[in-house]
Design brief:
It is a single chain. With 353 residues, this protein is of the alpha/beta class. The chain is built from 10 helices and 15 strands. The strands form 3 sheets. The protein has a 9-stranded mixed β-sheet with strand order 1-2-5-4-3-6-7-15-14, with helices on both faces. Helix 5 links the parallel strand 4 and strand 5. Helix 2 packs antiparallel against helix 9 and helix 3 runs parallel beside helix 4. The two termini are 37 Å apart. The relative contact order is 0.16.
Length: 353
């Protein structure tokens, strides 16, 4: 059983061309300390009058693979291309803004495709870099660590961490020396209150010389946003329907996945200080009853009833520049520099604590 404390280190001493280690912490995207709390969180969501599954539950190994497939092949998903362009055009300016040397931590690393721009630029001036890939998905961290180790060999010292953000952010920031923490296309996918909580957690632990680099979606056109997230090609439907496949596989449920349809809508917040966001759900196509042995419960759905795909209704927040300023004020962070294009903003931050 995965515990909250450090339980496993994998050293690849028998493969001299690999130079990384992997540490596994509590791999649950929540503040809770026990994996059994996954069961309680699922029960809480599925027992409510407005049923939901937690946003993070779709991201097992299969869900992570589906999401990476979406990023690469969904022609409507504008953000990935815009973010890559923004980073590639401004990476030199960023590196000239941040004092070197530093440790590079990568929150929600995925395949580290975009992070390689920072690694490559850094290694034009320094001989080695300590790189810390962080993700809830163990397969992502291990595969990325292996791939980058093969690419950069001894020039990249890789210290991978698997776990939820509440657990790993303090561990990353307790690492000695100056740090640049990058968070690309990850933070704004969380519920708004969670974004603030995690930024506050980081701001309280950032040293004066540490910097946090975060990207945000600043798109406001409803049609563009909805085409990206309810894409006609069906990539994100696979990601989100994975919650039912995972319930069937891990919790002994009997969901008929073919009887649910993935839908969503971009909704502006009535509080204009908060960004609009995508509300996404699985709609039941018929009246049906589902048994979930692992949760010791029965869940009934009416025809047309929604299973929400987030604890707070919406995710994938779309910020205006004013809303970003409010977010940073609420999180005790100051802007060092901001870069943006049509769809994406990249913000370098420091603590104001």
């Amino acid at each position: 059983m995965i515990q909250d404390l450090f339980v496993c280190r994998l050293f690849h001493e028998l493969q001299p061309y690999l130079h990384y280690r992997l540490r596994i912490f509590n791999a649950v995207w929540s503040e809770k300390n026990n994996p059994m709390d996954v069961v309680e969180e699922l029960k809480r969501g599925l027992n409510g009058s407005k049923k939901f599954v937690p946003f993070w539950y779709k991201f097992d190994e299969t869900g992570c693979n589906y999401y990476n497939e979406n990023i690469q092949h969904n022609e409507y998903y504008y953000l990935h291309k815009s973010e890559k362009q923004l980073i590639s055009e401004n990476v030199l300016d960023l590196m000239n803004t941040v004092t070197q040397p530093f440790l590079l931590a990568d929150l929600g690393c995925g395949t580290a495709e975009k992070t390689k721009y920072f690694i490559d630029e850094y290694l034009t001036k320094e001989s080695t870099l300590t790189y810390m890939p962080v993700d809830i998905c163990k397969d992502s961290v291990e595969t990325t660590s292996r791939t980058l180790s093969e690419t950069y060999a001894k020039r990249l010292i890789i210290d991978g961490i698997v776990g939820d953000y509440h657990t790993v952010i303090p561990k990353v920031l307790n690492y000695p020396g100056q740090k640049l923490i990058v968070w690309l296309s990850g933070l704004f996918n969380l519920p708004y209150s969670e974004q603030i909580a995690l930024l506050v957690l980081a701001s309280q632990r950032l040293s004066d010389n540490d910097r946090l680099l975060v990207t945000f979606d600043i798109t406001q056109e409803k049609e563009t946003i909805e085409n990206a997230y309810i894409d006609p090609s069906g990539f994100l439907a696979k990601v989100n329907l994975n919650v039912l496949h995972r319930l069937n596989k891990e919790m002994g449920a009997n969901f008929d996945v073919s009887q649910y349809k993935y839908e969503g809508e971009f909704i502006l917040d009535k509080d204009h200080t908060k960004p609009g966001n995508m509300h996404r759900w699985l709609r039941s196509l018929c009246k049906q009853t589902c048994l979930i042995d692992g949760l010791n419960m029965k869940v009934e759905f009416e025809k047309g009833e929604k299973l929400q795909l987030s604890e707070e209704g919406g995710t994938s927040y779309k910020y205006t520049e004013n809303q970003l300023n409010i977010l940073f004020q609420r999180s005790n962070l100051k802007i060092v520099k901001l870069w943006k294009n049509k769809h994406c903003a990249m913000v370098l931050l420091k603590t104001s604590c």
